[in-house]
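Case study 2.
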Amino acid sequence: MATSLAEIRAKLQAQENRTGGNATGGDNAIYPHWNIAEGSTAKVRFLPDGNSKNSFFWVERLMIRLPFAGVKGQADSKPVIVQVPCVEMYGEACPVLAEVRTWFKDKSLEEMGRKYWKKKSYLFQGFVHDNPLSDDKTPENPIRRFVISPQIFNIIKNALMDPEMENMPTDYAAGLDFTIKKTSKGGYADYSTSSWSRKETALTSAEQAAIDQFGLFNLTDFLPKKPSDVELKVIKEMFEASVDGQAYDPDRWSAYYKPSGFTGSNSSSVDDDNAAPAAKAVPAVKAAPAPVNEDPPFEADEAPAASAPVQAPKASNARAEDILAMIRNRQKQ
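Prediction:
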């Protein structure tokens, strides 16, 4: 992990130069700060990553949301969304974004492109010092995980680059609390007035004892499992079915990726020559982190040639067919 602000600043600056500026759930460890009431604040204290090789005290998480018209075989099924990992998170080329990026060359496809663009968030850990959520229960291990939106993350990052911040904010003896303040803007939640505390404080003896007892989380353990070649084929197949307006097919995909809360078929029978092999041909897939608490209402990462994220309207059948034809023609080349 980084031992100084100078090292973090150097790495953040290197990232800016490169980009041009641009575990399982059920333990109640995720603190859902997005549920606090408008006008209220939550004060948290970030801690270092348990992974000593991580220079930062956070990890980046990239997900793609695939909407489906419903669940195949279920009468009166409502639309569902399946979250899948974007492999750009692991430094590899994402087959979904490879297709979606081309859509931004056509103005008529930009809104559709935003619909399938990667959603970025950041995973931190630490203590909750002031908690306005009366129904939130602190778990036995009081070290919580935080899924932070790009808006809040930019406030955190910009302050780290400020030379007036002298000490690491995660320092046990001279660190800083971070205040998450929820307001609204244009009918949406807004966290732009969130800020670091000005006064340095030390962790309490109880917090020090919790770190000694439970240890720090290795944050990468709570990122989605990197998809195998088989799972990448499944993701691409699901993507094409989603664009086509089809229902989610549990017989084909539930052994790999499911909608949140889905408890139906876990079969992996496949009836398409282009589909992925059956699940029995590969090891069992490790369960992804709980989507209930790890799917906050965050904005999308900025898409090519796009300004503010826009809710994309449902594509017409003709438009979906045009997009699918474009995808399949490219596969044949």
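The mean pLDDT is 81.
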